[in-house]
Amino acid sequence: MTVQNPHDRFFRESFGRLEIARNYLEEYLPADLRRLLDLREMSLQDGSFIDETMKAHQTDILYQVKLQSGDPVFVYFLFEHKSYPDNQVAFQLLRYLVRVWERQEKDGQPLAPIIPLVIYHGEAVWQVPTEFASILTAEAELRPYLPNFHYLLGDFSHLLDEVIRGQIWLQVSLSVMRAIFNPHLRAELDELIELVFQLSNKRTGLEYIRTNLYYLSGATERVSRQDLQQALLQQGAEGKQLMSTIAQEYINI
Predict the structure, then answer these.
(1) Between the N and C ends of the chain, which has fewer C-beta atoms within 10 Å?
(2) What is the pTM of this model?
(3) What is the DSSP pairing of strand 72-80 with strand 114-120?
(4) Strand, helix or coil at 62?
């Protein structure tokens, strides 16, 4: 039986939730681009477009959104779960975007615009240019004949001190994601678990608390099962109850 990559599972269970993906776009898209979109009209699309060799390091999710004009546009999320930036991500993105367009063509649909977003949470700050043309060495006279595009970068590496924005679902997702590669995760674990437990009074909140505990237990060695158990106990009776119902399945305490 194949064990699912914990990064892949976490991102799909997080950004596969419409409320999290929509809130991310509301908070992190440039204002002029956000105004073009009707984010009430979003639908998750099936399938993945990633190379087999990259699936250990990347996860993708595709949404169809409507423009204010009513025309379709697609938002392509690429989650980079390597601990370091990849200077070839623009080249990889080009292949993935072409595969989306190929599927549209196969389905008899007109080719629609695609907005590519890269979400990264590694140990080093992302300093790779976000323009495809940056990976090509070419004279200025050749540039008009070469493909080019920009991708939107969300850098949530632990080295950044930026305050995470958004509703509680999104704050939890990005905070846990950012914590995974943080060498000080153990010292900050109690505060992180307290944030996660703010979901306990939300509809489907318990389910998503499970998702976050699974990720913290499976994607890093910076905290032990005992560390997680102790952090859960800090939540009092609620933490004990959750431990008894989900710990065996997700963190095997």
Answers:
(1) N
(2) 0.92
(3) parallel
(4) strand
